[in-house]
Amino acid sequence: MSAPAGAAPADTRVIVGLSGGVDSSVAALQLVEAGYQVEGLFMFNWGEDEAGRCQAADDFDDAAEVCQALDIPLHRADFSAEYKTRVFQYFLDSYAAGRTPNPDVLCNREIKFDAFMHHAERLGADLIATGHYARMDHTGDTPRLLRGRDPNKDQSYFLAAVPIAALAHTLFPVGEIEKTDVRAMAKAAGLPIHDKPDSTGVCFIGERDFEGFLRQYLSGRAGPVRVSGGPLDGRVIAEHAGLIYYTIGQRRGLGLGGVAGAAAAPWYVVDKDLASDTLWVSQDTHHAALEQTQLVAGPAHWLIEPPAQPFRCEAQVRYRQAAIDCQATPLADGRIEVVFDRPPRAITPGQYVVLYDGAHCLGSAEISHAGAAARAEPTTSESIA
User: Fold this and answer.
1) Could you tell me the pTM of the whole model?
2) 67 is a catalytic site residue
3) Site annotation (Interaction with tRNA): which residues (predicted)?
4) Is residue 99 part of a domain?
5) Across the 385 residues of the chain, what is the mean pLDDT of every consecutive 10-residue run?
6) Is there a catalytic annotation at residue 326?
7) Which residue out of 67, 203, 313, 326 is catalytically annotated?
């Protein structure tokens, strides 16, 4: 945990974003043990779940028990209105436009490091802290966002769209720790959530059926499923319920078993043609659409001085994919073109490309197009500018 220069713990009030989970709870524990003035703040970002029971209420109770065990105050704030207008609406608009958005990236940028941070400042916070597995280096002239020490839990990808000014006032106490050690610390401290399962999935969807959730807000338009390549090239083999329910590279949930004349092999989504409502699929795991080496993304969000010339770095196009060596070229309109040394799997519009120099996160941009810049249209989105 690297604090900004001159920030003496005993004189520094830190408000921790407490979710009721083990990571944020141990973040608060570490700050208390380091001598900071620590307070918790629980965020209500979403309403009731499909069962009519508010999961957030249970999480708040867990956060309250943690604060009682640590003897620190707990605040709470309702950001559900901001979440629905600044994150969820963009989520819906992106799916309607055929993209596959990453709401966790936007939630960090728009809620946790904007609405939450401003609320914490009104409560008198000098710094904020979260349970993200990432690190901040405050030792140089400019703060740097670094990958978390645990490579299996690193969450810098989700923080790459946050303004550096916000990150400069943030602590990530668990960023130096392995996940197994985090749970051990929680147990040793007697925190009641030490064995609570990690949350999975998008925060407002959770474990429920994704397509069923999306159908509550968007109506898919049926269309043909056509084969791309191979002996069945161009043939219609099924009908889909709507392109909004599919993403590039998707394998599960296609319902295409037993196609006459096709091998007993998995099918993959390789393209979505919105003009004709056609879903293109292939059984070729190395289909060209799944192994493209170029992308265009933007507008670029930099955590460093914006570069003017092409430069070498590494980049990843999904959270769980490894970073790949590449060349990034800033474009005159604020976008970037990235050319990879080897193809990442299934470049998908709406996801983010995040650039790294080793552990140092350089910046990010929403992917608008897989391919060369000459064939891509500039993005018109303002919510991630």
Assistant:
1) 0.90
2) no
3) 132, 351
4) yes
5) 66 95 96 97 76 69 96 96 94 94 94 96 96 94 95 96 96 95 95 85 63 86 95 96 94 89 94 96 96 97 97 96 96 97 96 98 96 55 31
6) no
7) 203
